Amino acid sequence: MPLKKTILKIHSWLGLLSGLVVFILGITGCIYAFIDELKPVFYHDRMYVEVPADAQRLPMSVIREKAQQAMGEEYKLQLAEIPLGANRSVSFRTLKVNPEGLSYATYMEYFYRIYVNPYNGKILKIENSKWEFFNTIVNLHISLLLGPNIGTTIVNWSVIIFVVLLISGIVLWWPNNKAAAKQRLRFKWKDTTRWKRKNYDLHNILGFYAMLVLLIIAITGLVISYQWVSNGVQWIANGGKTIAAPPPVMSDTTIADAYSLDKILHDAVKQAPTGTTFFIGIPKDTKLPVHVFARNDNKPLYKATRMQYDQHAAAMLTKTTFATMNNGERINAMNYDIHVGAVLGIPGKILAFLASLIAASLPVTGIYIWWGRRNKKQTSSKINTIQARKRA
Q: What is the arrangement of strands in the sheet containing 290-295, beginning at the earlier edge strand?
């Protein structure tokens, strides 16, 4: 019992310290899990087009030029997102960050997405992605909109504290006998059950059932945030071996051919025949390779094909699939899909949504429990004082 009292104090104070951040992470996590499903609903006009009768798409070089003209030479395009669906638009991204920015507003100098009709080159939408709703949700989740220098540090430490809270919570939850176990595994409310008891059950019972999922979400979040955690997970997955990353590749600058988005896309489609959307980088100098990420929109991201191309020769330099990865690389590739539940498809996302919702509720119900105990102690102290005065 003395040990549990100590753990309860640690649990309470750590919960108060991280409660607001955990609440924000839980609410934003609910939306984060379904961003891919929500965007086509709310942004249908910019993401989809009518297919003309002749269905003749413009060359990607022409579409890229249209997008660059719309933005001006000041905003160099950096990434092309090319869905292969006949009724989908093509989009480009351009962004610039200031590493010294102390808030998201100053860190992200600008971020735009340009949506283009691939049949006539019409600009469908120039989206200010810096303050676009879903991007704002993502950055609120990652850095509380305070930027990476301050916000990400706060979030990362709050997640570490949350892991401690989950572990200490299960210790506090653990019943001493079978009768207590029944009360902590299911709700047994009556019409006469007070809200204080209901709140206690909501904190303990929901927290217990969501604990394992929340622990997985928290740990995968730390893998994303900390390279040393990612390296440690990969080291364990590789059986205690550190496998060196392959040396970087570069484009052959002796070749005079210019960067061709069309040639690279044409070959990438052949190399990744199951891909439905291709993300192709636009290199900022003549030496860098072109990174291509080919995903199937109906499958988790870890099943994507990753390629690098010589920007001048449009020749593939490297190709990586899930099958060619070592165990550590596979775990790392799956990490994001595990984090948002996508590894199990829609059922997994629903599970992540519900767990995130419970995570958001835990600080609320926990503060109510803490406040009730605090008031109870103060009330008991006042009663004892009054009784002592009477005896005197």
A: 123-128, 108-116, 90-97, 79-83, 277-281, 290-295, 305-309, 316-320
Residue with tokens 């006539």: 120
CA distances from 147 to 13, 100, 143, 295, 300 (A): 26, 9, 6, 29, 28
For 384, half-sphere exposure in the C-beta direction (CA atoms, 13 angstrom radius) is 6
Please report the DSSP string for 340-368 in residue order. HTGGGHHHHHHHHHHHHHHHHHHHHHHHH
Q: What is the pTM of this model?
A: 0.90
Domain ranges of the chain: 52-143
Residue carrying the six token digits 């249908």: 44
Per-chain mean pLDDT for the chain: 93
What CATH number should be reported for the domain whose range is 52-143? 3.10.450
Whose structure tokens read 């090319």?
82
Name the β-bridge partners of 81: 91, 279
pLDDT band at 162 (very low <50, low <70, confident <90, very high): very high
Q: What is the mean pLDDT of residues 63-69?
A: 97
Instruction: Please name the amino acid found at residue 310.
Output: D
Q: For residue 151, which amino acid is it? A: G
**Start-to-end C-alpha separation, the chain:** 34
